[in-house]
Amino acid sequence: VKIAVLKETRANERRVAMVPAVADKLIKLGARIQIQSGAGDAVKLPDSAFKNVSFAADARSLVADADIVVAVQPPDIEVARSMKEGAILVSFVYAHKEVELTKLLRDRKITCFAMELVPRITRAQAMDALSSQAALAGYYAVLIGATNIARMLPMMTTAVGSIRPQRTLVMGLGVAGLQALATARRLGAMTEGYDVRPETKEQAESLGAKFVDTGVDARGAGGYARELTEEEKAKIAAVVTKHIQSADVIVTTAAIPGRPSPKLISKAQVDGMKAGSVIVDLAAEGGGNCEYTKPGETVQVGQVTIIGPLNVPSMLGEHASELYAKNQFNLIELFLKDQSVKLDWSDEVIAKTALTHAGEIKNEAAKKAVD
Ligand code: NAD
């Protein structure tokens, strides 16, 4: 079985889908690995760090005879077109944003496992790249916040008096948000967390944070949040505004599957924020959680800074690649058996992660988005 590893080409993408430790494990399973030259350059992982693999310069010839192609971002159309019929692709896809690619994968009978479709079940945790990457982003968002205020987060006692600890508010307590709370706390900030799923109260408190309780319960399907009604939004604003306006660093992470990012911070709320404070909006990719957010930019509104970073996991590209490659390995191990590919469609992880197979789009939501 030949596994091809693509070099990433998209803007802001620095990760690589293979690291030496994972390559070794795949070789032990009987795979041959060919890597596009320089694939790890952006994370300072030179080709020479990989042992017992071969290299190719051109992506199209690299994938032409590969049985499995791995990448972080969806491949370019021309590269996907060069894959052999019936081969396997493992990468993030987000079919609703990649309609042409998804149709091509279907028509070329590629079996595509889309990393964003890995089910959020206990058995699949080791394959869950959304979670591994979100955890890194949550950590890094706090560092971005901390280095964009002219203050320290922790308390400090000095000869000329004490400096009080600063306040960090995290809005949206999924994987990224909880990691942000933990990080801010480790840096000595006073931490507060807020979410519309009530079960996050206990999770926030276990990380030493105060929970901002609005009394709104917006639990939706599958452990995610649903969209809020106008009444709920008003009820929340009444409680949350004073927490927004007393924070030094705010990290927002809120997302609703398949919908644009919910707006958690209005322009009016920003206008009343403390001078010198900062919002780091991890939802910028989906339009942002703050009405002022501009994806990929830093906006100054009065004395408040609103940062909308894109592809935050890539800013920690080395660890992001390591965790991502391990997530992919755990998935590939499910179907790489006795030196050949065996797909067990009764396995929930295989069935749910498949985006396309044998000329069909297997994921219902993707099918609707594409057709
Ligand atoms: P996400 O990225 O979809 O959303 C981030 C957070 O934003 C969520 O906590 C959500 O409740 C919150 N949110 C949405 N709208 C909001 C609003 N209007 N105001 C405030 N907060 C809002 O979340 P995620 O990190 O992907 O996690 C989603 C769920 O999946 C969580 O319940 C998590 O525990 C669960 N999960 C389970 C597993 C597993 O069992 N294997 C793995 C990972 C995540």
Automatic annotation (TrEMBL):
- In Gene Ontology terms, what is a biological process of this protein? NADPH regeneration
Q: Where is the Alanine dehydrogenase/pyridine nucleotide transhydrogenase N-terminal domain?
A: 4-137
Q: What Enzyme Commission number does this protein have?
A: 7.1.1.1
EC main group: translocase
The Alanine dehydrogenase/pyridine nucleotide transhydrogenase NAD(H)-binding domain sits at: 146-308
Which chain positions lie within coiled-coil regions? Answer: none
InterPro entries attached here?
Answer: AlaDH/PNT_N, AlaDH/PNT_NAD(H)-bd, NAD(P)-bd_dom_sf
Its recorded reaction(s) are:
NAD(+) + NADPH + H(+)(in) = NADH + NADP(+) + H(+)(out)
Pfam families reported for this sequence? AlaDh_PNT_C, AlaDh_PNT_N
Q: Which SUPFAM superfamilies is this protein grouped with?
A: Formate/glycerate dehydrogenase catalytic domain-like, NAD(P)-binding Rossmann-fold domains
The GO cellular component terms are: plasma membrane
Gene3D superfamilies found in the cross-reference section: NAD(P)-binding Rossmann-like Domain (3.40.50.720)
Instruction: Give GO terms: molecular function aspect only.
Output: NADP binding; oxidoreductase activity; proton-translocating NAD(P)+ transhydrogenase activity
Query: Which SMART domains did the record assign?
Result: AlaDh_PNT_C, AlaDh_PNT_N
Q: Which UniProt keywords apply?
A: NAD, NADP, Nucleotide-binding, Oxidoreductase, Translocase
- Annotated protein name in UniProt: proton-translocating NAD(P)(+) transhydrogenase
Q: Which organism is the protein's source?
A: Povalibacter uvarum
